[in-house]
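Please supply some protein, with fold tokens.
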Amino acid sequence: MSDTDLPGTPVSRLDGLTSWHADWSHLRVAVLGLGVTGFAAADTLIELGADVLVVASGAANERAQLLNVIGATLVQSDLSIVPPELQAHQPDLMIVSPGFHPDHLLLTWARAQGIAVWGDIELAWRLRDKVGTPAEWLLVTGTNGKTTTVQLTATMLAAAGHRVAPCGNIGVPVLDAIRDPQGWDVLVVELSSYQLHHLPRTGPGALAPWSSLCLNIADDHLDWHGSAEAYREAKATVYFNTGVACVYNKADAATLRMVENADVQEGARAIGFGLGVPGPSELGIVEGILCDRAFLDDRFERALELTTITELADAGLGAPHVVADVLAASALARSFGVEPETVRAALASFRLDAHRIEVVAVRDGISWVDDSKATNPHAADASLASFDSVVWLVGGLLKGVTVDELVQKHAPRLRGAVILGIDRRAVREAFARHAPLVPVFEVDTDDTEQVMPSAVRLAATVAQHGDVVLLAPAAASMDQFDSYAERGAQFNQAVQQFLER
């Protein structure tokens, strides 16, 4: 449902709020959630003079204490009912944090009351003119590789001398970026499917990015979106109203269909990237050289060299799925005018974050690799494909997806598997169906501190010279760990302790 479908609050009042300098002081706003995004929204709206009520669950924390300082009101509730304080507030507008399910009780109530619902990204877009000339936005989404690609793109832009901020789902709220007093030339915005779900495609709140990118699409977050179709539809929003380049993955036809079905600005081009030889308007690889045949006038005749596979491998960027991220980031940077030699120099100094296909140790010909960031089957598929012989640490919270296809595809490369997490039964049954000859072990302890030490010991019983013991869980971590980073850190610690015995 769009704002124009809502009874109650006159939409024209909200439609006029497309600038930091508009009058926001008359608005009553409810903010759902008090994570990083929710606090940034409340802080922004208070600065604008709005009357802000924050509705959140959980115990008081530092952000809750700060709300009183900045002048917002906090209602703490289990969110299983509509708090009476929220009803009494009679909000004109509700800002929803990304984690709230689309059919959450409070969102259903808001829409029934005729209250407009925005995400933090729409709010930030409307307010992007606070500090001088608004920055251009480059948008990045996809099932996997988003954060790495955002970081790569920002590194390339910074190397070219641009004032650039990586932000959004990467951890820095866009609302904080647009309020930074130094201002920016360009924002590289990582968008989750949750954030995209709440973005309009037309009207005053619709984004109009410089360039946009969907890296890939595979089933994920189906428990949140309700279906694979709804998940893909949310992701497709990234391309709407793009001005310069819609970057798509040649190996994932769904991303090209998204571009073809999007309403974009006149002159916007479709730019493909892939690991094969590029055609005109594409980036790809020719005899080990990454090439651009998109952003040059005579692209039908020649290509520009960006870097080489050897140089990427030297920088720890040689895994095929990481090379694809490099090509995608290069396309975004090139669309903003970054020269090939600058791309090359930026890549030479770039290093992946921890827990992304990170070599923890090598001992007796066995490599121990932490790819805890592989939180869904699509990411784990790319990670497994990077190695020839693997002892696979797999499992966790599957989020409504299955690992059957993944197990079947990679069974020939598996020396063994160690199953972790709450959804062990589903993973165990997938191995029984598709890889019955692969030795399978389970970690059945409920003690989080013992999960990784047990997994490492079990993996060591089958690993042989030349093998990779790979933590690529294909599942979220929240069943046993606070985050994928904690899961990876505990794996790293367990490996070091095991090898030091």
About this structure: The longest helix spans residues 320-335. Residues 162 and 185 are 6 Å apart (CA to CA). The chain is about 35% helix and 20% strand. Residues 1-10 have pLDDT under 50 and may be disordered.
